[in-house]
Amino acid sequence: MFGTYEPPFKLSQEGIEIRCEPTEEGFLYKRKVHAEEKEILILSRKVNFLLNPIEPVNLPKKITHFLYIDLQKTVVLGPSEKAKFYIKFPVEVSVFVSKKKGQWDSIDTFSLCNQKFTLYGEITSGHLCKYYSSPVYGEPPEVLPLIEGVMAVEAVNRTGEWAEINTLVFNAYHMKVYYDNELVSMDAYVEIESEMVAETTFRERALRKGMQKSLELYVSKKIPVFTEKFVMEWGY
Amino acid sequence: MFGKPLYGDVTIVHIFIATGVAFLSLLISKIINLNLRRRLKDRIDRPKLNLLTKAVSYGLYTVALLIILPLVGFNLSGIAVAGGITGLVVGFASQKVVSNLISGIFLMVERPVKVGQQINVEGVAGTVEDISIISTIIRTYDGLYIRVPNEKVFTSNITNYVANVVRRFEYTVGIRYSDDAAKAIEVIKGLIESEPFALKRPEPQVFVDSLGDNSVNIVVRVWAPATDWYPLKMALLWKIKTALEAEGIEIPFPQRVVWFANPLERGQ
Asked: Measured between alpha carbons, how far apart are the two ends of chain B, in Å?
């Protein structure tokens, strides 16, 4: 389902139905996911469509740019050790339109996953996050790409103590999402700095060859001195 | 004619220039503020934008005043030196205004409330529309315009409903004594779990709080985002009632059990 399309077109997969039909004025975009329907009239004749997975923090409402993954199993790292494991994350698909090459605007976003929010940190100063619970795998698991993606996590314990990882929090502004027709992936890097503090970031790396990088909805300004890391200061 | 002084050294030309400067400062301030609001509305949040436009306006007015006063014959250094009794009189007469002014400055510095936030000050509840140098404007939930002097805002207890990221709301749901409370709690918890805006953490609390006269009272406490809690609160209670009834658990009417001292004679 991911990729570029010239209208008119019709897609149907995993309970998602998308149609783009010509009208007198332009095109009528219709999307149906389970019971939820959306229609948009596009008053332009020369448009292209792009469907790609985006940072999964937009639904059901854009109120946060953080993703909180609750690990269903605790990951334990020895002092000064590093390890790699795999977790799942929810996939959100955005539909972009473009009249000019390279200039895409999102008109619709949908997901097949249940939506939930949570608080990470203190009530007065914490972060509201999109919540997801994931099992932990030693190898990349099988997933349905329209529902879940696979995140490779390389964790490094910079402390002299054993570290237990139960949750990971990521900033959407640092996310790099890659996709092909069978997989959506991200590559994360976690540094355990102390008993309560860890830093998370992402690498610009696909999980396998041939994957394309998604359009980013959350683009951070690259400011010298400030690194693109999120500091988890209330535990992990 | 134009060179003839009206009073002191002030000529009609000076008056025209002073009027022109005043008018120009108002115009420039409006144009700059309009452009700032248009360009920055999507880039910075409303409280900061408000503060920026006010700083620009007051800055321009101050500069204009410093230009106008010498033109119309006020010697600023003279005023500073000869403050004395005049200053005392003016001070006493305008102490409330000055108090509001100082309170306004402290409010802008301390920022216990920001434009756009929902607050309650001395029984006035609503959304902060504007914080100016003398007063704070609140739009009540009924759409009424209420102007609260800054001194009152600054010295009162302020309840800010959205200062924190999340907040909690609570229901009390009564079920019959004959119903299974554990089952009711399970149903309610399942319903809360399916609501996106009912936060996973802090965890919701659902427990039997009291054994009332008419019902077993279950307290339901849910945390939600401070900006999106009210729609959830409006919708969730009825969903709880419907879900409980679907499981055969009823919310009872007020009732009494009557015990008779002697057995009742049955009618013939």
From this structure: 120
